[in-house]
Design brief:
Helix 1 runs antiparallel to helix 2. 20% of the residues are buried. Strands 2-1-3-4 form a 4-stranded antiparallel β-sheet. A hairpin with a 6-residue loop joins strand 1 and strand 2. By secondary structure, the protein is an alpha+beta fold. The chain contains 2 helices and 4 strands, in the order E-E-H-E-E-H.
């Protein structure tokens, strides 16, 4: 399953597609730290996840 990490950065949002949940989690944490932006993660099956939900998924 692939994941799209979306950062609501100024002046425009940035979206990056990664192939694994671990890579998505790492990227989302890094983007969130850099600018304290709002981060959204979309799965290729249509689910929208928060960073907390992605962390829980990665633990399983």
């Amino acid at each position: 399953m692939s994941y799209t990490v979306i950062s609501q950065a100024e002046p425009s949002p940035v979206a990056t597609v990664v192939p694994t949940v671990i890579e998505a989690l790492s990227l989302a944490r890094e983007l969130g730290r850099q600018a304290e932006d709002r981060i959204t993660i979309a799965t290729d099956s249509g689910w929208m996840l928060s960073l907390d939900e992605l962390e829980a998924l990665a633990k399983n």
